[in-house]
């Protein structure tokens, strides 16, 4: 089965977005001090590693979606990229920092804007029939709601996010998480509403990697957490539940390999 010529732009877009996300993720995971110089936020090691895991999970979703020769598989990750980029740009614009919006932040906002506009334009193109699930998965709908609410709090009420975050967070740094949380909400909503497993699978694998990766990063820096605070237990439980749900829903695909 060949890929339709008019859909090659979607594949090119996903390949470029995956490369950008993977490079950013590797930078944040491997060189946190350098990431703080390149990105529009100053990020201590744990924040850099969590944000790095989130970028690598997005890259995984994009790359897995490129495997099926079907444009429907690309729509969910492109929607996630659009949400991520729009929320990240909005977060930086709403919290420009004490010295205003510098050249680095301006460049990132412009890049996010281009990626968001590009994904939106590609998503507007018709791809044929949809395949909505007869009974949407309520567990995934719950994940989508929780992630979207978290993203809105990080964007609109960063001061509130600072008070409930399980380790030290600044209002400006809240924007670094708004995009990934909103993209996770979009991915989870897509999984809940979609019937085709090959369309669901990229988001499921991405969310499984996200849950496991964030847990590992936090365990590596567990000295930063106060385990007498409920927020700490909520954080660990939420990502453990996300990983467990994603791995559970991936079991049918793993059994048939």
Task: Give a verbal description of the structure.
Keywords: Membrane, Transmembrane, Transmembrane helix. This is DUF2306 domain-containing protein. The chain crosses the membrane at residues 12-34, 46-66, 73-93, 105-123, 143-167, 173-192, 204-225, 231-250. With 257 residues, this protein is mainly α. The chain has one domain (5-126, 141-255). The chain contains ten helices and no strands. It has helices spanning 8-30, 32-38, 45-65, 72-94, 103-123, 138-156, 158-164, 174-193, 197-220, 230-255. The protein starts with 7 loop residues before the first helix and ends with a helix. The model has no long low-confidence stretch (mean pLDDT 90).
Structure in a nutshell:
With 257 residues, the chain is an all-alpha fold.
Q: Give the SSE string.
A: HHHHHHHHHH
Helix content: over 70%
Total number of domains: 1
**In whole angstroms, how far apart are the ends?**
21 Å
Backbone structural class: mainly alpha
Overall residue-averaged pLDDT value: 90
Shape: globular
Question: What kind of sheet is the major sheet?
Answer: none
> Which consecutive residue ranges, at least 5 long each, have pLDDT under 50?
none
- Indicate the proportion of strand residues: under 5%
Number of helices: 10
Cα Rg:
18 Å
């Amino acid at each position: 089965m060949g890929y339709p010529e008019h859909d090659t732009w979607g594949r090119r877009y996903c390949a470029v977005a995956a490369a950008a996300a993977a490079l950013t993720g590797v930078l944040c995971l491997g060189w946190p001090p350098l990431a703080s110089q390149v990105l529009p936020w100053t990020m201590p090691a744990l924040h850099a590693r969590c944000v790095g895991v989130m970028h690598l999970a997005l890259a995984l979703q994009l790359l897995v979606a490129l495997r099926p020769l079907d444009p429907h598989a690309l729509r969910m990750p492109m929607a996630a990229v659009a949400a991520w980029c729009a929320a990240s740009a909005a977060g930086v614009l709403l919290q420009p920092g004490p010295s205003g919006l510098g050249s680095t932040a301006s460049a990132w906002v412009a890049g996010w804007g281009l990626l968001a506009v590009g994904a939106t334009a590609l998503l507007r193109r018709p791809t044929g029939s949809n395949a909505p699930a007869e009974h949407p998965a309520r567990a995934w709908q719950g994940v989508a709601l929780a992630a979207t609410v978290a993203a809105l709090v990080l964007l609109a009420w960063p001061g509130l996010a600072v008070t409930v975050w399980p380790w030290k967070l600044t209002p400006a740094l809240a924007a670094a998480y708004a995009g990934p949380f909103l993209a996770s909400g979009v991915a989870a909503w897509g999984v809940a509403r979609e019937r085709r497993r090959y369309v669901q699978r990229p988001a499921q694998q991405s969310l499984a990697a996200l849950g496991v990766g964030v847990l590992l990063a936090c365990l590596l820096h567990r000295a930063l957490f106060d385990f007498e605070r409920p927020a700490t237990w909520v954080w660990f439980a939420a990502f453990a539940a996300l990983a467990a749900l994603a791995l559970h829903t991936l079991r049918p695909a793993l059994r048939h390999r």
